[in-house]
Design brief:
Elements (H helix, E strand, L loop, with lengths): L14 E5 L2 E8 L2 E5 L16 E4 L31 E3 L12 H15 L3 E3 L4 E4 L5 E4 L2 E14 L21 E4 L2 E12 L7 E10 L8 E6 L16 E5 L14 E2 L10 E6 L2 E5 L19 H11 L6 E5 L8 E4 L2 E10 L7 E4 L3 E6 L2 E2 L28 E3 L6 E4 L2 E3 L6 E3 L4 E7 L2 E4 L4 H5 L6 E5 L5 E12 L2 E4 L11 E5 L7 E4 L2 E3 L6 E3 L4 E4 L2 E3 L6 E7 L5 E2 L3 E7 L2 E3 L12 E8 L13 H12 L12 E7 L2 E3 L4 E5 L2 E13 L13 E3 L2 E13 L9 E4 L7
Parallel strand pairs: 3-49, 5-6, 6-9, 7-9, 8-10, 9-11, 10-19, 11-20, 19-21, 20-22, 20-23, 21-24, 22-25, 23-26, 24-27, 25-34, 26-35, 27-36, 34-37, 35-38, 36-39, 37-41, 38-42, 39-43, 41-44, 42-45, 43-46, 44-47, 45-47, 46-48, 47-49, 48-50
Antiparallel strand pairs: 1-2, 2-3, 4-50, 12-13, 12-18, 13-17, 14-15, 14-18, 16-17, 28-29, 28-33, 29-32, 30-31, 30-33, 31-32, 39-40
């Protein structure tokens, strides 16, 4: 490993024991105890650290037991509504009708009546209902209510809120298609939420027909023919284009080898790249060029340049005839926002598509669950009342951003029998926002992360906790007395950070106690399951055809963008299947099915400038001095048990431990059977770095006839000592 002094290399084997015919060695460093068996083999890839120790699984033994075994999330109950009486309200009595174009308003009137009379139930009715009004559906301060959709399909179409979402992370709670705010014991069941694709498609499949490379600045372009429209619903007006990505010819999966792609900004109301219609279904696109008169956010200015324009079209020239997905939006109002609820249940609620995220959670929310809920495409044989097909052409996306995103909460969330597919970003991101700050005065804490105090969202009365920039706890806690711009005035004197800045946690929150059971994530595009919480169980789940990392247990920060998570401990992954997961999204240059570790100052997104002068100067000085980034504290991500899992055709590592302690991987099977992609040299292996008390045992590897797989085993890298 680069930057590690020779004296910190793992020592030769102090003890050798025998058990069940397998050779066990215990490798010790001053701060590490990695338990596995085998011999020192040659590395099989230059991408692996040159001084890593390799041990084949065939030389592992179960005779050495871990000191403690994580238990994961304890069972908990989400309370159902306890109505006081039998009163039922019918939405049809308040204008809810298939003939109306503003059924959200009708439902809101019915909800107001429920609050007025104390009704315990609101009934919708089967059918298709347009919700094209400006406002969505709001359940505010509702208590002990059952909303029964009766199978209703609610179809939304609402214009972008131009000017209200200038910051990418700033998504108003009240803006979603359906909002649950400060509700207590509320349940919703048997309902479908969708977007109006007939008039406002969220994305399109298209064939790249022609390219033109021009010497003049910003004059190069590509021509796309829409695959499913003789006349596009947005013709003749230019359409927002925020991202473009390659797809397989059958439109079912992302194409990782596509030479051309585009990212032009993802905030609501931001237009994206220049385009115009040549015909009702042929669109000319100038990559990385702004269209005059359209709205743009300065955040994405670095994505637009003459150099980007020419380079993108030159790449596209290599793929004329290729299939692409053109996404017209990304972040937006969301299908469902939940804020500050207690004991919220969604049961048999499907999201077929949405502008933005599927579900976004924030505030002091505690105890909520999803039972038999799905983010998926509508049934292909679904008909409208007049006999027309409900979804007459192929859709390239369900929700245009994350499936489920937790900004902050007080935890206790479960998913049972749910599934997610074809969303554009994370399947789950369970975290609580953190930030980076320095001591500006004895009792003044100045936020230096590029997103400022607005992103962190702390308020007077909240309790803060500090960690060094390696995530090690400082031992300081104090309350906010006042918020003055990007400065928090606190009630106790502050220490000085040992590094560039403190990582700041809001102790009023904790997205812990997370349970996913019998769920499926399939055909997701660059999606991941990010978990930054404690007491987590993932059990009996299936991850199939995922082009992002299936599971990542972590805490991380960046200087100019997101800061997520207080740490991740006591995690169990049991009885899960990982099937043909490509994972093109790498961490530290490595691909893994399961990732565990803290990420200290990872590479910042280069197109987002570091606006804070103190941080910019400090990082420049660190770079000039060739000083390494801080080594992550191992306690911040610790206590992981992966057992009884099946990994089929892992492209890279099955488990990458970047930092941590007390990690257990046991009694699992790895299968290689005609993988549909090229395997990396690390396929099926375990990577261990900056970790202690790692236990690997009982791993079985099978390879079908005609399949060549790299040697499978454990790579353990030496690391600097830590207390």
């Amino acid at each position: 490993m680069r930057g590690v002094a020779q004296q910190h290399r793992l020592r030769k084997y102090d003890t050798m024991t025998f058990g069940r015919g397998n050779f066990v060695k215990r490798i010790f460093s001053r701060a590490a105890c990695v338990l596995f068996g085998g011999y020192s083999g040659a590395l099989c890839a230059a991408s692996l650290a040159a001084d890593a120790e390799f041990t084949p699984y065939s030389h592992l033994s179960a005779t050495t037991k871990p000191a403690s075994v994580p238990t994961g999330c304890a069972e908990f109950e989400v309370e159902r509504p306890r109505p006081q009486g039998e009163r039922t309200v019918k939405a049809a009595d308040f204008g809810f009708s298939p003939e109306s174009d503003d059924n959200a308003a009708a439902i809101n009137r019915a909800l107001a009546e429920c609050r007025r009379i104390g009704a315990g139930r609101l009934d919708l009715a089967p059918g298709f209902y347009n919700c094209f009004g400006k406002e969505g559906i709001t359940l505010g301060c509702q208590q002990d209510l059952m909303l029964d959709g009766k199978g209703a399909v609610l179809i939304f179409r609402r214009p972008p809120r131009v000017g209200t979402n200038d910051k990418q992370f700033d998504i108003p709670v009240a803006g979603a298609n359906m909002v649950f705010s400060n509700c207590v014991r509320v349940a919703v069941r048997d309902m479908k939420l969708d977007w109006d694709w007939d008039r406002d498609p969220l994305a399109d499949f298209a064939t790249l027909e022609a390219v033109h490379v021009d010497d003049a600045p910003n004059a190069s372009y590509v021509d796309f023919r829409m695959c499913d429209h003789a006349r596009h619903p947005r013709y003749p007006e230019p359409v927002p284009i925020q991202t473009i990505g390659g797809m397989t010819a059958d439109h079912t999966d992302r194409r990782t080898d596509a030479p051309f792609s585009g990212f032009y900004g993802t905030s609501e109301g931001h237009f994206g790249t220049k385009n115009e219609w040549l015909a009702p279904n042929v669109l000319r696109v100038w990559p990385s060029v702004k269209l005059e008169g359209r709205r743009y956010q300065a955040l994405y200015d670095a994505r637009f340049s003459a150099a980007f324009n020419a380079e993108a079209v030159k790449r596209a020239a290599k793929d004329v005839g290729g299939t692409y997905r053109i996404a017209h939006c990304y972040y937006g109002p969301n299908a469902i926002n939940t804020y500050g609820c207690r004991h919220l249940t969604l049961e048999r609620v499907d999201i077929w598509s949405a502008y933005g995220m599927g579900v976004r959670t924030s505030g002091r929310q505690k105890y909520w669950q999803f039972v038999d809920c799905h983010i998926r495409l509508p049934p292909p044989d679904l008909k409208r009342p007049d006999g027309r097909a409900y979804a007459p052409y192929r859709r390239g996306v369900t929700v245009t951003a994350d499936a489920h995103h937790v900004v902050q909460s007080q935890g206790f969330v479960k998913f049972v029998g749910c599934s997610w597919t074809l969303h554009q970003d994370d399947t789950h991101n369970f975290h609580d926002r953190s930030t980076l700050a320095i001591t500006a005065a004895p009792r003044r804490l100045e936020v230096v992360n590029g997103r400022g105090a607005d992103y962190f969202g702390a308020a007077a009365g909240d309790e803060l906790e500090l960690a060094e920039d390696d995530f090690s706890r400082v031992g300081w806690k104090g309350r906010i007395v006042a918020v003055e711009g990007d400065t928090y005035v606190v009630d106790r004197d502050l220490p000085k950070p040992k590094g560039i800045a403190f990582v700041v946690f809001n102790a009023s929150y904790g997205t812990d106690n997370i349970l996913l059971r019998d769920c499926e994530m399939v055909n997701t595009l660059q999606a991941r399951n990010l978990v930054h919480g404690c007491n987590v169980t993932v059990e009996g789940c299936r991850f199939r055809n995922i082009t992002g990392a299936p599971l990542r247990f972590q805490a991380e920060y960046t200087w100019n963008a997101w800061c997520e998570g207080f740490g991740c401990t006591n995690v169990v992954v049991r009885g899960c299947t990982f099937d043909n997961d490509f994972n093109g999204y790498t961490v530290d240059g490595l691909s893994a099915e399961i990732y565990a570790g803290a990420r200290v100052a990872p590479p910042v997104e280069q197109w987002i400038r570091i606006g804070n002068r103190y941080v910019a100067d400090a990082l420049a000085a660190r770079k000039a001095a060739k000083a390494p980034d801080p080594v992550p504290c191992r306690d911040i991500v610790s206590g992981l048990l992966v057992e009884k899992c099946r990994f089929r055709n892992p492209r890279g590592y099955v488990l990458q431990i970047a930092s941590g302690r007390n990690m257990i991987f046991r009694d699992s099977e790895i299968e290689f059977e005609r993988p549909p992609y090229r395997l990396l040299p690390s396929a099926g292996c375990v990577s261990v770095k900056n970790a202690d008390h790692v236990h690997v045992s009982g791993i079985r590897v099978t390879t079908s006839a005609g399949t060549v797989a790299p040697p499978s085993g454990v790579y353990a890298e030496p690391h600097p000592p830590r207390p």
